[in-house]
Amino acid sequence: MRTWLLLGLAIVPIWANEIFFPRDLPAPIAANDSTYTDCANAAWPPSDVGEELVPQAPDDELREMINEIDPERIKAIIAKLVSFGTRHTLSTQNSTTRGIGAARDWIASEMRKYAAESEGRMKVTVPGYVQGIANRISFPVLISNVLATVEGTTDPGRVYVITGHYDSRVTDVMNYEDDAPGANDDASGVAVSMELARIVATRKPRATMVFGAVAGEEQGLYGAAFLAQTYRNSSTNVEGMVSNDIIGSSTGDRGQREPYTIRLFAQGPPLTETTQRASQRLQIGGENDSPARELGRFAVEVAANDATEMNIAVIYRLDRFLRGGDHSAFLQQGYAAIRFTEPNENFDHQHQNIRVEDGTQYGDLPEFVDYEYVARVAKVNLVTFWSLANAPGKVQNVTVNASLLGNDSQFSWVKSDSTDVAGYELVWRSTTAPLWTHSLFVGNVGTVTVSLSKDNVIFGIRAVGINGYKSPATYPFPG
């Protein structure tokens, strides 16, 4: 039944049952482990194959690491970075107390202290290059990244990267003289990289983990682009990257608070796919299953739980509307990369000159940072990337038999010869569901046929380690 309401001179159509039978909508909440498969289409198509997916939970070692994350250390790191006055990319590099050079040197010195406790597993480097005159670069300037690399114990060639950017800015992006505290944007992200480097330095991840502070983001992603290009030039197998950028406040510009939610941005079809592969992806409905989005789904599954105290709001787009960040540079090199950002930005405290106008304090100042919130975001990062580094690598060459006409689906992949792999798991979801909802462990094999139609659901294959850790899913293409 349909009816109409007359409001002044406007006639508004509404559905009658919305008047007489108002819907009892659930409270708005981002994903967590208790709501993981709770969506309208998660139970379709009906099947007795497999079971409802149970999100991976942190083990005792990971929970111990989580408990070491210290909000006071994070606060001290941010305060120290703010103390350098400005960290603008074009600011002085000849002072020990002011400018981006002083900030770079301090970050490196702290990272080296962590490395001293690593029994040689962590190496700290400060790679850089001289950027000539370019967009937002008015004179040649040294762009330097600070990297703390913990080499993996069993699979060092597989790499995961966590970054924040240590440069800052005010209203005029070319103003490199005035104070630009950059407490939230992005000392908060650098603090997460540094705190996690401290904790992981004394551990032994199976794959390599890199904790970075990159420069030049505000001027055009220069440091991240240099890092991603360096990895690509050396054929480094970066299986996942995250940029933590503006993760310092749980309060928005209207006073709205979401202290237990972080946004995760994940791009769709990869930029580096061939035209043929991109066309095929669209034809088979795989546009929502790019490597970046599989990485995002992985983060939700492992890190939105009681251990982190956080929900994750996945945003299926590159970044905030028509904006960008350092993960973009990795995506452009063909790597899976995502971005974490607070749920409600306050633009009075972002890219602003420090001032008071009409009683409002402007500027990216430490007083507007929620350090407990940053610590929880650090937990999300730690759980996600420790889980990645200790799981098997992504399954390679996953295909679905396109010549098999019927309601069964047959998959094949390259079976690993690693003794760390216990077997493989088939995961699936309805085509309208955002997250994997069902799973079936199929054993340590390289092919499987299941009584589910590839026409009706989205499938993925992931590896399961003997330690219980599971890789992100790989989407199958026709083969």
From TrEMBL:
Print the keywords alphabetically. Glycoprotein, Hydrolase, Metal-binding, Metalloprotease, Protease, Secreted, Signal, Zinc
Q: Name a biological process GO annotation.
A: proteolysis
* InterPro entries with a match to the protein in the record: M28_fam, Peptidase_M28
Q: Where is the signal peptide?
A: 1-16
Pfam families xref list: Peptidase_M28
Q: Where in the cell is it found?
A: Secreted
Q: Which cofactor does it need?
A: Zn(2+)
The first-level EC class reads hydrolase
What are the Peptidase M28 domain coordinates in residue numbering?
A: 145-351
> What Gene Ontology molecular function terms does this protein carry?
metal ion binding; metalloexopeptidase activity
One cellular component GO annotation, for this chain's record?
extracellular region
Q: Which domain of life is it from?
A: Eukaryota
Its EC number is 3.4.-.-
Q: Where primarily located? A: secreted
Which PANTHER family does UniProt cross-reference here? METALLOPEPTIDASE M28 FAMILY MEMBER, PEPTIDASE M28 DOMAIN-CONTAINING PROTEIN
Similarity annotation: Belongs to the peptidase M28 family. M28B subfamily.
Q: What is this protein called?
A: Peptide hydrolase
Organism of origin is Patellaria atrata CBS 101060
